[in-house]
Amino acid sequence: MSAESQPISPIAYAEAITELPLESLHAEAAKLHNDINKLLESNAALEAEKAVETEEGVKFLDEVIVENEGVVKSKEERIGLLKVEVEKRGQVWIEPGKKDEEVQAPVVNGAGHGAAEQENAGGQDADDGVYL
To answer: How many domains does the chain have?
Structure first.
């Protein structure tokens, strides 16, 4: 990697993300998570390719895999910095890639997941109207 294409340092990255809106922080984390997944998939494919390579080819693939692992660690570090920034703003961090059912819904006015079921337990249909 040439000196001109070096990634931004973690310190500079942490300073730069303080200027971003919350939505951009989450979008950046999702992008980094996607990048990590692609690098891991690439490494798995490279590992499989080693079975049919020459000794020199295997050595080259090993170097590429190690470089990819370094990039993964760097991207994971950036996700950690994004998490710190989000939490510093008093917001809840949602890990990129989590499915909706893995993320707990917030409790509002003391009502959690079971509140709607309890209200409907009296036999009233939810479409009957609004009750105060």
So the answer is: 1
- The boundaries of the domain holding residue 83 are 7-90
Q: Is the dihedral of CA 67, 68, 69, 74 positive or negative?
A: positive
Q: Looking at the domain assignment, is residue 105 inside a domain?
A: no
Q: Give the span between the Cα atoms of 84 and 14, in whole angstroms.
A: 9
Asked whether residue 12 is domain-assigned, the answer is yes
Say if residue 23's pLDDT is above 70: yes
List b or e across 1-11, with b for residues whose CB sees 16 or more CB atoms inside 10 angstroms: eeeeeeeeeee
> Which pair of tokens denotes residue 91?
């917001």
What does the alpha-carbon distance between residue 11 and residue 8 come to, in Å, rounded to a whole number?
8
pLDDT at 101: 46
Residue type, 7: P
DSSP class of residue 125 equals -
Q: Is 108 helix (H, G, I), strand (E, B) or coil?
A: strand
Q: Are 91 and 22 in contact (CB under 8 A)?
A: yes
Query: Is residue 49 situated within a structural domain?
Result: yes
